[in-house]
Write a structure and sequence with these properties.
This protein has 139 residues and is mainly α. It has 7 helices and no strands. The protein has one domain. The N and C termini lie far apart (44 Å).
């Protein structure tokens, strides 16, 4: 999707992001670090060999159900947009998000079958790729 969107922007002649090179470099490193930290934290919290065997709701999984994929959606798109200085790539996060929602539907069904009510409760308390921001109703 990133390549197609980038090529579309080039074909349409959309001007590049015109930001100070220092700001671009800071943004690039922010997205790279966020991507790396999220992926590593996700793999440490839920090693590949443990997937589907136990429900992990700690580490990054206490914030969202799919932090590994979220790193690609949000930070990966940020890296691509800043690296290629493409405004259009920033908006590619929308189709990329919907692609991943479609892509993981069987995974979510499997997890519902595997963990039942516990996973359903977890689904209601967390977002797929972004934390659910709620006001504390106890106040």
């Amino acid at each position: 999707i990133w390549a197609a969107v980038y090529l579309l922007g080039e074909w349409l002649g959309i001007p590049p992001i015109g930001m100070n090179p220092t700001v671009l470099m800071v943004l690039l490193w922010f997205f790279i670090l966020d991507f790396a930290v999220t992926v590593i934290w996700s793999l440490l919290a839920l090693p590949v060999l443990e997937r589907g065997k136990k429900l992990v709701i700690s580490g990054p999984y206490r914030l969202m159900r799919h932090p590994f994929y979220a790193a690609f959606i949000w930070s990966g798109t940020g890296v691509a947009a800043v690296w290629l200085q493409s405004w259009l790539l920033i908006f590619s996060v929308i189709p990329i998000h919907f692609f991943w929602v479609w892509h993981i539907r069987n995974e979510e069904l499997f997890l519902l079958e595997q963990f039942g009510v516990e996973y359903k409760t977890y689904m209601e308390a967390t977002g797929q790729f972004f934390p659910i921001l709620r006001r504390d109703k106890s106040k």
